[in-house]
């Protein structure tokens, strides 16, 4: 992996401190944890804040990282369509990957994270120091988004969703070959194949990677707006029809089809329209047999848009950071491993990825009627999908509608 940017002044002899990253107060820290979110005082902005703020830099459009209520938003240009589809009407300023923007006393740039379309790491430079906040990321290849780009820094703020040694992914192509084989077998038997996966990111990755020659492809109404945003961003996807376009009595249309649906559709009346079907679930959490059993599906495909244990280690090492702060996921095991490597490590308490599988069931009754009608916008269902996916788990400035106050391109 190539290094995106260098920091000549990076500290070489940072000594471990078990408390750093756990407190709000070190005046030398470029980023601290506040009740609103992760805050950069030198630039007076927040990264993926969970409470309303004046200036928010957004790593990607999943709802635990991108929320309504901020006055000004800054995000990557490739992810603008998706972000605006989920947060319509926001004051959004965008940057190309690698483009530098002066905000207050800092210089900020965004670099690919490989998580979903538009996902970005936030590089912050101030007074000769460089910090990078990763957001969510993966290192596996994905035809629907830019690949993770390691960025050299002195302090790296990382996720750890799958930060345990048990989580090791097979090559993605092996997983898609398995999905194709399952779909092909069902099609030969005249049976529909219903694949549950998160509607933003995972669904598009599946659509771009399966063999569309096996049969027709349909999607749930919650998936289509994201497909449209991906296509508008130039991501090629195969032809996909909405399930709602087919008469309910015409079940024969689905006998050889792949149907991509959000996890919240599982167990709903919406599934009755397919007649005989086999179902499967695509998630990193399918690595756990208990998760497969609880989901009650015919097949579980281990496919994640987050880094597995070896990839987390590789990504952290590639930054050459002497200090690492963990935000969410398996925080304690990751911090322990980092300290065993001689790194200074700590944690930020955040509100990223902190829901549980059971949260999906809590909104099932609220979303069932909407799922059955298959309308194109399902906010409660999308929120439930995000919970499931988390737990069972160059400078070319563009014309902007409204800029972040105090920001200047450089």
UniProtKB/TrEMBL annotation:
Region spans: Disordered: 1-28, 365-410
Comp. bias (Basic and acidic residues): 7-26, 384-403
Compositional bias segments (type: Low complexity): 365-377
GO terms, molecular function: RNA endonuclease activity
Gene3D superfamilies: Ribonuclease Z/Hydroxyacylglutathione hydrolase-like
Cross-referenced NCBIfam families: Xnuc_lig_assoc
Protein name: Putative mRNA 3-end processing factor
Protein species of origin: Paraburkholderia bryophila
């Amino acid at each position: 992996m190539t290094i995106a940017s260098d920091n000549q002044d990076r500290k070489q002899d940072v000594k471990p401190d078990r408390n750093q990253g756990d407190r709000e107060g070190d005046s030398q820290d470029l980023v601290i944890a506040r009740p609103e979110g992760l805050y950069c005082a030198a630039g007076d902005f927040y990264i993926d804040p969970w409470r309303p703020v004046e200036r928010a830099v957004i790593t990607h459009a999943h709802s635990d990282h991108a929320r309504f209520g901020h006055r000004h938003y800054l995000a990557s240009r490739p992810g603008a369509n998706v972000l605006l589809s989920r947060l319509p009407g926001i004051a959004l300023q965008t940057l190309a990957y690698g483009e530098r923007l002066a905000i207050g006393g800092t210089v900020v740039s965004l670099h690919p994270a490989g998580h979903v379309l538009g996902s970005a790491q936030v590089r912050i430079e101030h007074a000769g120091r460089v910090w990078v906040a990763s957001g969510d990321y993966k290192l596996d290849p994905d035809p629907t988004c830019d690949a993770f780009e390691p960025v050299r820094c002195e302090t790296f703020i990382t996720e750890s969703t799958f930060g345990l040694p048990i989580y090791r992914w097979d090559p993605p192509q092996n997983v898609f070959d398995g999905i194709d084989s399952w779909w092909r077998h069902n099609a030969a038997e005249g049976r529909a194949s219903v694949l549950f996966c998160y509607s933003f990111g995972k669904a598009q990755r599946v659509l771009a990677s399966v063999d569309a020659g096996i049969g027709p492809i349909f999607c749930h109404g919650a998936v289509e707006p994201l497909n449209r945003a991906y296509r508008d961003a130039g991501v090629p996807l195969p032809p996909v029809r909405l399930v709602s376009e087919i008469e309910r009595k015409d079940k024969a249309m689905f006998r050889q089809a792949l149907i991509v649906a959000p996890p919240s559709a599982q167990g709903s009346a919406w599934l009755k329209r397919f007649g005989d079907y086999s179902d499967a679930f695509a998630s990193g959490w399918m690595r756990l047999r208990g998760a497969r059993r609880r989901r009650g599906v015919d097949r579980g495909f281990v496919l994640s848009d987050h880094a597995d244990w070896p990839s987390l280690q590789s990504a952290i090492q590639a930054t050459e950071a002497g200090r690492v702060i963990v935000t969410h996921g398996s925080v304690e095991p990751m911090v322990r491993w980092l300290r065993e490597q001689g790194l200074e490590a700590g944690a930020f308490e955040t509100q990223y990825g902190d829901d549980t599988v059971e949260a999906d069931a809590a909104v099932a009754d609220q979303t069932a009627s909407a799922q059955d009608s298959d309308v194109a916008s399902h906010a409660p269902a999308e929120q439930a999908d995000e919970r499931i996916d988390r737990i069972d788990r160059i400078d070319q400035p563009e014309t902007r509608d409204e800029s972040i106050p105090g920001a200047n391109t450089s």
